[in-house]
Amino acid sequence: MDAVAVSLAEGLQLRRPRWRDALLMAGMFGLFQALMPVLGWVLAFWFADEVETVTPWIAFGLLTLIGGKMIWEGLRGDDEDHTTPTVTVRSVLPLAIATSIDAAAVGVTFGVLEVDVVPAVLLIGAVTFVLALAAVFVGSRVGERLGRWAVFLGGGILIAIGVRILLG
Fold first, then answer.
1. Looking at the whole model, is its pTM more than 0.90?
2. Contact 78, 144 (CB under 8 A)
3. Where do the TM regions start and end (predicted)?
């Protein structure tokens, strides 16, 4: 749900998202939501306790920085200067990592519960992809109506998700 909420927040900024942008965003979120449990499953045997205590802080830091940057950019420009953000792997990667890092903890339980990992992560990735893709377009519709305020709302959503992850 974090990835879906971030997709919605990013969609708020995009006046009319291109399919390429929406597919890139949804693909990155789906990929990382699928990969992080695998990483957690692999690393669980080495240092599960350390990973579990640090990941909320990493996610909080990344989402707060990105959300704060969005709000700062919204404060700096006026409606005429506000341009649609460019969606690139570089811009989506920190969001994909921040929203999926807590999924590594899910991977730790895979080993304990003897879950068949491949079907589980394929399902996680596919569901995240579909929901994130829809959220980008829903967010853009709302963003069209909110105008410049969409940037503030999107930044606020990212910071709120970071706080929620931190508080558990």
1. no
2. no
3. 22-48, 54-72, 92-113, 119-139, 146-167
